[in-house]
Design a protein that fits this description.
- Helix 11 (254-268) crosses helix 12 and helix 11 crosses helix 13 (292-316).
- This protein has helices at residues 3-11, 15-23, 49-61, 81-86, 102-105, 108-122, 130-140, 154-161, 163-175, 200-214, 254-268, 274-290, 292-316; strands at 30-35, 41-46, 93-98, 183-187, 190-195, 228-231, 238-239, 242-244, 250-252.
- 28% of the residues are buried.
- The chain is an alpha+beta fold and 325 residues long.
- It is 49% helix and 13% strand.
């Protein structure tokens, strides 16, 4: 069976809708920019509604069935940055590396071989013929057949393509035992290594750098300005934005805590802008998830104000969901 037939049946749409979406797939993509912390602009790409439907079908029926490595901590159901940080909580010394231009570094050519091997092994009820490959290429990749930031399918494809890399790095750094009981996780483009062996981070950095330089698929590069070595005892152990303390406790960075306290204080004084109230509610939900102890301390001081904030948001947007705060 052709992939269009399966899509059409599952989605309840005609093949003509699929064909028309693929025909203008790259023409109907909207581009906009968001500011980076360093002052640059990151390009975000937004596919058409029809293209999104095709991507989500591929995600749930194809991509989600292709194995990814346990070290991949991002874009996976039930996992968060907190789970990623907790993986490293028992260690003292940390190395953090950043992959430069991560999504655009991944190309269709890096992905199609993996898809072909999976299809041959699993034999789903549709053919991976030239037309099926073209549908996947045009719907999930963009100019120069690169993986675009903003497509729903890009995160899961990135984890699939990085599976071999994660396997290699795990064998090289973790399984070898050269660096003690080392832990490796990858949160999208952030590589985190932790160990209790003092001085090991330099050796890890050298081996990982060489491994990345020798790779041909995907072609990756490190961002030297974002390479960080720290320790929990020195107070500089940050894993995907969360602080790992010397006793293994994972918490929110002090600057973030101060920011939440400031916003609450402004709200109590009636000085917080209306457009920032929902942001404050989001910050509180984040605190409750990541550091319940800190959240409880806020409630002890600001219980009435937090309750009033929830009612303010609920009254301004009837469909708002605030039960998690």
């Amino acid at each position: 069976m052709r992939i269009e037939d399966t899509m059409s049946k599952d989605l309840g749409i005609t093949e003509d809708v699929i064909k028309s979406a693929i025909l203008v797939a790259r023409r109907d993509v909207k581009k906009f920019g968001i500011k980076k912390r360093n002052g640059g602009i990151r390009d975000i790409f937004h596919p058409s509604k029809k293209l999104k439907v095709i991507q989500y079908w591929l995600i749930y029926n194809v991509f989600s069935k292709i194995p990814v490595h346990a070290a991949a901590a991002a874009y996976r159901p039930g996992l968060s940055i907190l789970d990623n940080a907790k993986n490293h909580a028992a260690n003292r010394f940390f190395l953090k590396l950043d992959l430069k231009d991560f999504f655009p570094s991944i190309k269709y050519a890096d992905f199609i071989g993996i898809l072909e091997r999976w299809h041959k092994q699993e034999a789903p009820g549709w053919e991976l013929d030239a037309r099926a490959k073209e549908i996947i290429r045009l719907s999930c990749f963009y100019k120069n057949d690169t993986l675009p930031i903003g497509f729903p399918s890009s995160p899961v494809i990135s984890n699939i393509v990085m599976n071999d890399f994660d396997i290699h790095i795990t064998k090289l750094i973790v399984s070898s035992g050269k660096y003690g009981k080392c832990v490796y996780t990858r949160y999208a483009d952030d590589l985190v290594f932790s160990t209790n062996t003092k001085g090991a981070c330099g050796g890890i950095f050298k081996e990982v750098s060489e491994a990345i330089s020798s790779m041909s698929s995907p072609r990756l590069a490190l961002n030297p300005s974002k390479t960080k070595i720290g320790s929990s005892s020195g107070g500089s152990a940050l894993v995907t934005g969360l602080k790992v303390c010397e006793d293994g406790h994972v918490t929110i960075h002090r600057k973030q805590k101060d920011h939440v306290r400031l916003m609450l204080s402004l709200y109590c004084k009636g000085s917080l802008r209306d457009e920032d109230k929902r942001s404050l509610l989001g910050h509180l939900a984040y605190c409750r998830h990541v550091d319940p102890g800190f959240y409880s301390s806020l409630l002890r001081k600001y219980f009435k104000e937090v309750d009033r904030l929830k009612r303010d948001i609920l009254s301004s947007t009837p469909s708002a969901e605030t039960s998690d705060i």
